[in-house]
Write a structure and sequence with these properties.
Number of domains: 4
Transmembrane segments: 92-111, 123-140, 146-165, 172-189
Family: Belongs to the AB hydrolase superfamily. AB hydrolase 4 family.
Keywords: Membrane, Transmembrane, Transmembrane helix
Protein name: AB hydrolase-1 domain-containing protein
CATH class of the largest domain: Alpha Beta
InterPro entries: AB_hydrolase_1, AB_hydrolase_4_sf, AB_hydrolase_fold
Radius of gyration: 26 Å
Strand order of the largest sheet: 1-5-4-3-2
Number of helices: 21
Order of helices and strands: HHHHHHHHHEHHHEHEHHHHHHEHEH
């Protein structure tokens, strides 16, 4: 674990190099007048008590595992950490290949129907089952239905089931077919799989003659995917991450002396004061007629949205863009597709690297053994938030935490059913041009966090809030921060602010 002495010994002052930064960057960094080493390392004795107290565990990984009291605890914890993420990865790949397997399998079945003398192989049963399940995915998966419409999946599934039934007399296979039909009908009937009923595009308050909309060309308000071979938001989220490698960046850190990340007070998703503190410092370095625009991705988009809504006229930014962030994270508290397919993978990294990797002993000192067990066995982000973040930071429950995290979190759910909400909510405070960019096929943060098919949360109604400063740019495709061409969507907005 890091001690204060060790940490400060590792801090070495650095000079702004003329060989690695542009002249404008050099001028900018110099004008910030910020220290290049942590402030308490320069005046250690005077600042020790302000940053650390003797009874607070130091920063570092979890070292004590007394919450694992029996061998059964160890086995169950390891199983809970490994199995859900492996299953999620396998299911994601299976769903991705369903796009190709179902039509190819259908062609094979048609060939056998037209050429009944075709030799049967021992792998036919496996191929039939794989084709049936793949066709079932095309009809029941909400992202496939969004991409291709429900009729494509329904037609493929019915055709596959019919042809397999005709192709075999195997009782086991026919029973499997009947079971798949019942499961499919149940999933199709499931009312939670409601597709967006509104069009993609830019939504804004038409009663305000905003110069941004007037100058923003309509061709830049929609997204045409550069990779049509990626079938759904799952592929558009995962494949860019797997296929692209970001270059190694050499970071040069400057320190903000007034951020309250000290003692027990560490980062969590409802903290937005850090953004304000950083923006206020950056304002001091602005040139005449220069704008300060905040852009946040995923969790950064959530925090930025919350900051813009809460700060109101005190907002230190001139404009902001939230990408794949969501405005109401209470929606994510309910079990959904992401909890099973994506969050188990993300939860492993979040827990191991951040929660118990960076603040392990500090978290352990505030959680009970039962809570620590639940944290180590959490299979999704909501589970980690519920067991660790809520308890550590003193929130009442998960919904309280997500309400404090969200720009729309202070609005009761029942108000969303009407076409108007009570005044003086956070969203009414938006005082700068604020663009929310969200893909309807985002598999991690659902479109339901920013819009609804009816009521006040419908995009056309939601954007009438905030004196014309709220813009929603909803694209049918894009995944979670997975757009291949973002400059057309975001850059032009910033250009015309």
């Amino acid at each position: 674990m890091w001690s204060i002495e060790d940490f400060c010994a590792s801090q070495t002052p650095w000079q702004i190099s003329t060989t690695i930064t542009h002249i404008s960057s050099q001028t900018f960094l110099t004008s910030l007048q910020l220290p290049t080493v942590h402030p308490f390392c320069t005046t250690f004795a005077a600042n020790f008590s302000a940053y650390y107290l003797t009874n607070i565990p130091r920063q570092g990984p979890l070292l004590h595992w007394e919450h694992l009291e029996t061998l059964q605890d160890v086995i169950w914890t390891i199983t809970a950490q490994v199995v859900p993420s492996l299953w999620a990865m396998m299911e994601l790949w299976f769903r991705l290949f369903a796009y190709f397997v179902a039509p190819v399998g259908l062609l094979y079945l048609l060939q056998r129907e037209l050429l009944p003398t075709l030799t049967t192989t021992k792998y036919n049963t496996l191929l039939y089952v794989w084709t049936v399940i793949s066709a079932m995915v095309l009809w029941t998966d909400e992202l496939y239905c969004l991409e291709m419409g429900p009729r494509y999946g329904a037609t493929t599934f019915v055709a596959v089931v019919f042809l397999v039934w005709r192709s075999t007399s195997n009782r086991f296979l026919r029973c499997t077919l009947l079971g798949s039909v019942l499961i499919t009908l149940f999933l199709v009937y499931d009312s939670t799989m409601v597709a967006p009923q509104f069009e993609e595009g830019l939504y804004y308050d038409t009663s305000h003659a905003t110069p941004i909309v007037k100058q923003w060309p309509e061709t830049f308000r929609k997204y045409t995917p550069a990779t049509p071979w990626m079938p759904t938001g799952d592929a558009r989220t995962g494949l860019p991450f797997l296929l692209n490698r970001a270059p190694l960046i050499e970071w040069h850190r400057l320190w903000l002396p007034d951020l309250p990340v000290r003692g027990w007070n560490v980062f969590h998703g409802a903290r937005w004061t850090d953004v304000h503190a950083a923006a206020k410092v950056l304002q001091t370095a602005l040139a005449p007629n220069q704008l300060l625009v905040g852009v946040g991705y995923s969790m950064g988009g959530i925090i930025l949205s919350n900051y813009v809504a809460r700060s109101g006229t005190e907002c230190a930014l001139h404009a902001a863009v939230a990408i794949s962030g969501g405005l109401d994270m209470r929606v994510e508290a309910e079990p959904n597709r992401a909890h099973r397919l994506w969050q188990p993978i993300v939860a492993v990294e979040l827990r191991d690297t951040f929660v118990v990797g960076k603040w392990g002993e500090r978290v352990r000192s505030r959680l009970s053994k039962t809570q620590m067990k639940a944290l180590m066995r959490a299979t999704n982000i909501a589970g980690i938030d519920r067991t660790a973040v809520v308890a550590y930071n003193g929130f009442r429950d998960l919904m309280h935490y997500y309400s404090e995290m969200s720009a729309l979190g202070d609005i009761p759910f029942e108000e969303f059913d009407s076409d108007a909400i009570a005044p003086h909510r956070r969203i009414h405070n938006i005082s700068i041009p604020f663009l929310v960019l969200q893909a309807l096929d985002d598999p991690l943060i659902t479109w339901k966090t920013v819009a609804s098919n009816d009521g006040w949360k419908h995009p056309a109604n939601l954007t009438r809030t905030g004196s014309g400063n709220l813009f929603l740019l909803l694209t049918k495709r894009g995944g979670h921060v997975g757009w291949c061409v973002l400059v057309n969507l975001v850059g032009v907005f910033v250009l015309f602010v």
